[in-house]
Amino acid sequence: MATRSTKEVGDAAEAAALAHLQAHGLALVRRNYRVARGPSAPGGEVDLIVRDRDGTLVFVEVRARAAASHGGAAASVLPAKQRRVVYAARHFLTGLAKLPPCRFDVIAVEGERITWLRGAFDAG
Prior knowledge:
- The chain is of the alpha+beta class.
- It has a five-stranded mixed beta sheet.
- The relative contact order is 0.19.
- It is built from two helices and five strands, in the order αβββαββ.
- Helix content is 27%, strand content 35%.
- The N and C termini lie far apart (44 Å).
- The longest helix is centred in the N-terminal third of the chain and has 18 residues, at 6-23.
- The chain has one domain: 3-Layer(aba) Sandwich (Trna Endonuclease, Chain: A, domain 1).
- It has helices at residues 6-23, 79-93, and strands spanning 27-35, 44-51, 57-65, 102-110, 113-121.
- Pfam families: UPF0102.
């Protein structure tokens, strides 16, 4: 059996996360939204941007791990990663005429198990 690359694992986790969100009534707005900050400063990326049924714009970080050991996938979304997601989200919002309600969710994919953490962190 061939070993999958990190990118393949990440892409599969994002696809599973998107299917999970769509099954719960959320609609895809954008996938893999990236923004650069500068030559020596990391920018940001949002794995999935979806709209909830109530109009809330949801910025989703997807994390995949083979198992829940070492704190699991959700525990790997550290403050530095949160800041990069928030940075990209703020950039995305500048292109909108009207600011909708927003939240930041994390989808943890551990093997076949998907855990959806609504409001996992905030922009503060």
